[in-house]
Task: structure prediction
Amino acid sequence: MSLSRKNIDDQTRTRRKWILRGVGYVAGFCLLCTFYAWVYLDVLGLETPKHARLRKESAELHSRLNLLARRIGTAEASLEDLQLRDNEVYRSIFGMDVIPDEVRRAGYGGTDRFDYLSSSDWSGLLTSTAGYLNEVNKMAFVQSKSLDDISQLTKRVGDMALCVPSICPVYMNRVRFASRFGFRTDPIGKTYTRMHQGIDLAGGKGQPIFATGNGKVLNVTYSRYGYGNCVEIDHGFGYVTRYAHLQRILVSRGQEVTRGEQIATLGNTGRSVGAHLHYEVIFRGKHKNPANYYSEDISSEEYASIVNPR
Result:
């Protein structure tokens, strides 16, 4: 009985010895692997195959994103050139307001549209490229809408030709230039110089005054001061004309008028020193020299064929 017990104890000790030896082997192997990895990665500065593959893929993606950003930049430069011509040429021709830069580059607002990229975009390149593409896309959309508007207006070129104020508002052989456009000495006080925003055409009371282009009567005012009796016509395409110091007004606010249609008679109302017509041309909110909009060489017969006195 004692011999059997002794055999069992020996077997137990032997088993424990092998277990401890096995644990030691495993621990030693792990320490050896750790030491090897430290020497391989930190001391020698080498990469694991997986790390090398991921680094290569990352470099390729960065290269593609940089190429995409350059292409977007080229497209943006072409788009900005088109925007400049759109504002300075196309929209100007048709009397349209320019589109401000803050409108062309306005974002979509709200929360960050690219939060979903932040968790996987450590360098920020992907997020910045996506934002850049989004901005250029918005600019292209605004420009496309602008060209659509211009396209619609080109279908009305004939209407525009009739709306631009391009004839003299009175018979030229019946009036004389009393004052031209620009700075002048005030004709009443004669004590200071002020900007004269139109031209003065002096003549006899009651002479017919004609609309210088197709349009709609914007305002009709009657006053003993300032412009006196006055008519303003909105011709569209950015043009407004003003006829002041009238004797009698023959149109009403909101009425459609055509080029050459009589709208009033020449008078001496308001702040005036004699019978004359004060005539203004306003383009996109700025006063222009009316004499630049009509020809002084037109014959009396040609002018008479255009106008329609009442």
